[in-house]
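Bench log. Compound arrived from synthesis this morning; before running ITC I wanted a structural hypothesis for how (R)-mevalonate sits in the protein. Inputs:
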Amino acid sequence: MATWSAPGKVFLFGEHAVVYGKPGIAMAIKPRVSVTVRKVRNPSKINSPYIENCFELTGVTGSVYIHSQLPSSSGLGSSAAVTVATLSAINDEFNLSLEKKDIADIAYQVEKKVQRGRASPTDTFVSTYGGLILIKDNKRRILPPENFNIVIGNTLVSHKTSELVEMVGEFRRTNPLVVDPILNAIEAVTIRSMHNFNNLKVLGRYMDVNHSLLEALGVGHPALTRLVNAARSGGAYGAKMTGAGGGGCMIALCPKRSKSRVAAAIEAADGKAIITTIDTEGARREDDDEREDYIKAGR
Ligand code: MEV
């Protein structure tokens, strides 16, 4: 029996623009998904297509228990975290000798297969390695970690990343003169943000600008606007939607002392708040006690 966990992610800057080769910054976050895999002769039916494909691609069979702190379908990379944790646990339980790079690559193949072609290599990379990640020209690089205090607000409005990416693509095809300057402005904000990681007020201001630019791309939602405004009134340095938009989650960059106040403001605006910060570990092995707990809980 082997239990591994993997973190979720948020985009700090640059979502949607990264699809067009612009830079983006993503960060692994503390909430995780844990997966226990056990070699058994007759495994019971698995009802997650992600997990099913992890077994199929590695050519082994086993039973699985999942425990997740991440809300699904909210843009926090929960399917990538499930996939990375499952592959890591399979690797351990069956001694497959896969390296981290292999786990990230296979996890991306699984996501692409289940999501019929449209998947983000960023989600699986961030979940595998953890930390702060710069995405540029479809390559990913680990940046030195930063201890940002982040409050996530989940609108609980479901969204489909593939549809939102397609919608922005269509807008760009039909209106390049309008959309290209917006993507260039997102690029500028992302680049400037990297020069201001130690100036949280400026960084917050850039988040506000990035949010408006995403709204200009057409991926805003009234519930996101409500939570972003609530977080700003609650004392955040700045706030923006994170991920594909159209629902899902927003993030607020906060002074340490204001985290609870910002979270309360988000909840008062009908959002579900998660206070978090960077995860620097990525996929990690969990200890035996915890594994036993999962099994006892029948998960
Ligand atoms: C979704 O989390 C982020 C997008 O930029 C898509 C992607 O990067 O694959 C909208």
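What the model suggests: Residues 150-276 form a domain with the Alpha-Beta Plaits fold (CATH 3.30.70.890). The longest strand covers residues 24-38.
ITC booked for Thursday regardless.
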